[in-house]
Amino acid sequence: MTETVGTASGRGKKGPGKAGRPAGLTVERIYTTPGVHPYDEVTWERRDVVMTNWRDGTVNFEQRGVEFPASWSVNATNIVTSKYFRGAPGSPQRESSLRQLIDRVVGVYRRAGLDNAYFATEDDAEIFGQELTWMLLHQVFSFNSPVWFNVGTSSPQQVSACFILAVDDTMESILNWYREEGLIFKGGSGAGLNLSRIRSSKELLSSGGTASGPVSFMRGADASAGTIKSGGATRRAAKMVVLDVDHPDIEEFVATKAKEEAKIRVLRDAGFDMDLGGSDITSVQYQNANNSVRVTDEFMRAVEADGEFGLRARMTGEVIEKVGAKKLFRTIAQAAWECADPGIQYDGTINDWHTCPESGRISASNPCSEYMHLDNSSCNLASLNLLKFLGDDGQFDAVRFRKAVELIITAMDISICFADFPTEPIADTTRKFRQLGIGYANLGALLMATGHAYDSEGGQALAAAITSLMTGAAYKRSAELAGVVGPYEGYARNAESHQRVMRKHAAANDDVRTFPASSAVHKLATITWKDCLATGERNGWRNAQASVLAPTGTIGLMMDCDTTGIEPDLALVKFKKLVGGGSMQIVNQTVPRALTKLGYQGEQVEAIVEYIGEHGHVIDAPGLRQEHYEVFDCAMGERSIAPMGHVRMMAAVQPFMSGAISKTVNMPEAATVEDVEKIYLEGWKLGLKALAIYRDNCKVGQPLSAGKSAKATQKAEVAAPVEARPVRRRLPKKRPSETVSFTVGGAEGYLTAGSYPDNGLGEIFVKLGKQGSTLSGVMDAFSMSISVGLQYGIPLEFYVSKFSNLRFEPAGMTDDPDVRIATSVLDYLFRRLALDHLPYEKRAQLGIFSAEERTKQVAGTDYSAGYGDVDVESLRFTVDAAPAGDEVERTPGATRAPVEVGSSTELLELRLGKAADAPLCMTCGTKMRPAGSCYLCEGCGSTSGCS
């Protein structure tokens, strides 16, 4: 794509050049055509963007008549218009077209490249600008959000999303930490820092008093972050707090958030509003930061050996206390099990891959844990959409991918020439070391489309080869830029270490096991690393860091990516907004592509997609071979990827990242503390730099799905007197009952349900199996236990949520028109009980409807009769305002999404019948979905992180 040359090629005015260096880069075309502007190659259309608050229907944002390519989704249009268009809404200065946005940004990059002698000629600069424009227009890549916010505007030209601060053991430094962090939060970014230089509460001050310790100062910083967030920011303040494992206050640090989580539970049970965003949540501390423990290799070896480990004084370095390493490790895992904090950062691995150790150690990370470099530094990010490089033949276009990386990394380095920074120390360090963070999104979709399971050797090998090629190409271009405009200022002092790390990357590339799908990519990566080493030894490198794997939250939506960062698919069925309003649920378009790649024919693909659209998973899909099930495993759902599968994928790509990987390993609610320990220990053994876990339902602060009415009910219940212990309410001698005969998978049985005279289920009897058989006895005992529970006041909906969707034999077709298929006898019984004894609004929350209700839902008719004060609008399905030729009819497996669904996470909740652990968006009220170690709102593009 590009190469360094000694003289200009005569196509235009020659770049300035410097003595002894080539005159600049000659830029080849990758996508564009000479004489044709990228804008002339796409079809444009005008759209109206109206974004409402999901909770109350109020309009959050409105701009009509915006111009976008017809290929861009409604969601991408909404997010770019509301987030990135500059100018006061309603004013003539307000941007109204994607052309204006791209031109504003690309124009600055092009001019800065010329002014700083990056290009051989003005023609090269023109081609550079056109290629950037084409790739942004076609969603091939995106810069991080601050670029779109600030570049080309009257605001400071801040381009970095990730910051690392420093704090020393002085009050002046601590107060300055509060100030610097506040300035970064005000700009919508996040920062991380290590507090290990601050004296512990077990050490003396120079005045003779005892030090407060870092945990005490964390309280002030946490309150500051919460205040700035609540003072008008559109998302939570993002921050990372790190403490070294040998700090004497490490146990207090580890316990901070676990103790606060216990406090939240007590306050919640006492009737306080402790949901995320609740009025009383601000009374608890440490909720605005991610906490991580920085562990050393020495500590991890002591854990393995069950030995002692010394905690060291901050001022002298002497051991002031010895603790059992295994016991401390268990304390860390226990806290993470209880509340998902702290995460782990592996200090030995991090600093072994450090390109600039002579300038200082790496002691902290940004809030999402992907950027790790010197204190008081920053990193600007850009991410490629991997699916854009997958050809119709199912092959990854490695050559074009390398060329794209080279062009993008050139642009990213140019941005440091004109960038502004929040503090002078950050500006100084970043200009001296020029840290960059190129990465990618849509890896999960790419693997599925190529027929690879996420947790498979073939899938991990392909991911490793692509990541190796990306970082190798980035550093190769960095070395070429060093030959044109010089290496980074700190390179001379760190040359030997930088070269050592480059050789480590190349050696790791040689160790990658290749498969047919990854061999061509790996071969080009090997060539690229060889060229990188040769050019770097001659020129040095322009950048101390080149690559990270960020969450790609908002920009992932901008690029219409199915998956973010390194993540797998969230689920096979996703939520999609439609042109003109309305929404639908649709099977991910990667699925038919994967089925075709696996050899299924057109009719088979259509049948499988329709099955997935109806059931949300591939289990028992018609014609789908069981050995192919794993290809469609997702982060959530019926077949979810095992926690260690996520760790193995991270380990496959980590040797090819300059920084680290933003990712949280989700664990099931039933996971044990020992399981957490195993994950953290394996992460160290596999060479990860950082790792965090999240166990389902470990946090109290989750949103209520029932809305305002549920909160009102909850408050009423709190106000009512509480019995000291449950009281059994027995049924009268004579009570109404109803018997239903049923068959499930060929097994026949009878269900008798007895009710209180004033309504309300009070007992059940299940006849299944021959009299005197084990099965009959078990069902009698089961019926008795359920009946007693009902009489003690356990709500029926609780039993329905627990026993529906259980899977065991007998299972299959039933003779009940309302419940056509059951995954087990218990699944059928409790669905039938729900239909007979629960009001509609409660069944709607559980996703249980009668055949008549489902028919009316599809027809979109009013079916509120008989359901009292149920809000009809909340039960209707939305109507597509798109032109004739309905998108639902044209998309196999697609159905209308109910209006109460506002995101893929909410749609998945309806499928699973349980709530997902994700916060509500602070801006629009939509339930967010995971993106790396952060959360992303599909409704408006807001994130809980820093990118």
From TrEMBL:
Residues 1-24 are annotated as: Disordered. Its EC number is 1.17.4.1. Residues 160-694 form the Ribonucleotide reductase large subunit C-terminal domain. Coiled coil: none annotated. It comes from the Bacteria. InterPro entries: RdRp_reductase_class-2 (IPR050862), RNR_2_N (IPR013678), RNR_lg_C (IPR000788), RNR_NrdJ/NrdZ (IPR013344), TSCPD_dom (IPR024434). Residues 49-139 form the Ribonucleotide reductase class II vitamin B12-dependent N-terminal domain. Keywords: Cobalamin, Cobalt, Disulfide bond, DNA synthesis, Nucleotide-binding, Oxidoreductase. GO terms for molecular function: ribonucleoside-diphosphate reductase activity, thioredoxin disulfide as acceptor. SUPFAM superfamilies: PFL-like glycyl radical enzymes (SSF51998). It catalyses: a 2'-deoxyribonucleoside 5'-diphosphate + [thioredoxin]-disulfide + H2O = a ribonucleoside 5'-diphosphate + [thioredoxin]-dithiol. Gene3D superfamilies: 3.20.70.20. Residues 732-835 form the TSCPD domain. Its cofactor is adenosylcob(III)alamin. PANTHER family: RIBONUCLEOSIDE-DIPHOSPHATE REDUCTASE, VITAMIN B12-DEPENDENT RIBONUCLEOTIDE REDUCTASE. Catalyzes the reduction of ribonucleotides to deoxyribonucleotides. May function to provide a pool of deoxyribonucleotide precursors for DNA repair during oxygen limitation and/or for immediate growth after restoration of oxygen. Belongs to the ribonucleoside diphosphate reductase class-2 family. This is Vitamin B12-dependent ribonucleotide reductase. It comes from Pseudonocardia xinjiangensis.
